[in-house]
Amino acid sequence: MMATGWVRLRDLGYYGVAGVICGGIAIGIHFYRSRKDALPRAKEAYRSDEKVHVVKKKNVTLFLPKGEEPKKVALIFLPGALTESTSYAPALRRIAQAGHPVALVEMPFRMALFGQSRVMEAIDILNDEEKIGAGFVLGGHSLGGAVASNIVESQKQIRGLKGIVFWASYAYKKNWRNRGDLKVLSLLGTNDGVINSKSLEESLECMPLGTTTVVHIKGGNHTQFGCSHRVDGPFSMKDKDPQISLEEQEDRVVQETVSFLREIDTAPDM
User: Fold this and answer.
1) How far apart are alpha carbons 156 and 6 in whole angstroms?
2) Closest Cα to residue 142, out of 257, 245, 44, 236?
3) Other beta carbons within 10 Å of 110
4) Phi, psi of 102 (to 5 degrees)
5) Beta bridge partners of residue 74, listed in sequence order
6) Cα–chain-centroid distance for residue 180?
7) pTM
8) DSSP β-bridge partners for residue 161
9) pLDDT (tens digit, 9 = 90+) per residue, 160-215?
10) DSSP class of residue 61?
11) Is 84 exposed, middle or buried (0-12, 13-18, 19+ CB in 10 A)?
């Protein structure tokens, strides 16, 4: 009887392990199907030219403006969930062309939640390049913006931090109403079918008074904040169709982000 019972327990253990493996494979397949790969034109933004020098160091791609202009505030950017980091290269390159150093952080498994330490790595790399003398802003799309807000919250005394930029994102359950030292830009698409409207509204009510700017991009959706394929996979919420082109939305995103960074450049130190 004991031998038979042991065999049954052993068999159950085998079945349990097999079930976990099969479940992991199924999740992996669904995860893979939900990935958002960059469109072909996004890769063209990685070429250096007379205006922007592009270089990759460890897990960070730098878009560095050329020339002898005065040092300007830098942008450290975190990609959205499951989105290839390359998708943001066209917009970020244009921000660099406007004179602002940009660091695009590549995340493990395309999930910013797993790569928060890489943001500190990006800060160190920009320091080594002497491109962070005027301070920096953290930013991100979707989950990337939420993770950026977690970093701001957990490390409130990050030297040189001037603000945060949200592209179709928000700070989840943060109360920053009295943080006058922090400037905030929130860019939202009116055709965003992914973002949680209730959580967004609650978040905006808790942003710094007097230093928060909210811009609604008419006709823009969630996906077009990056230059990527739209995927409505098992781990992706279904986005709405945009009413403007990818190029038009990118123009607005770049315009508003550069305007925000220039405002920080010209603001007196707090």
Assistant:
1) 56
2) 236
3) 21
4) -130, 135
5) 136
6) 23
7) 0.86
8) 136
9) 999 999 999 999 888 999 998 899 999 999 999 999 999 999 999 999 999 999 99
10) E
11) buried
